[in-house]
Please model this.
Amino acid sequence: SADSEDSKLLEQANATVGLCPTSQIIYEKVAQMPLFQNLNKGLGTDCAASHDSMDIMSELKVLYLVSKMQGCTMSAQDVLKSVWD
Model:
């Protein structure tokens, strides 16, 4: 799993991390959002691989809720950027 050093390296490389929060919850491997808060993020659904859904709106909601639960300062706008940027 990623740590703060990994996060710094990804930020320096201007990398984009992929997040599929619903499948991460199902497989009990939830990303530590404070580590990814300042990184470019791409949101995915993982569809049939985990929960038979391709509902990106549901993923947005889960990402927002997980971020808030973990104490992130990500706004709703920041979460939306994971889909449109």
About this structure: Residues 56-69 form the longest helix (14 residues). Strands lie at 16-19, 40-43. The mean pLDDT is 86. The first strand starts at residue 16 and ends at 19.
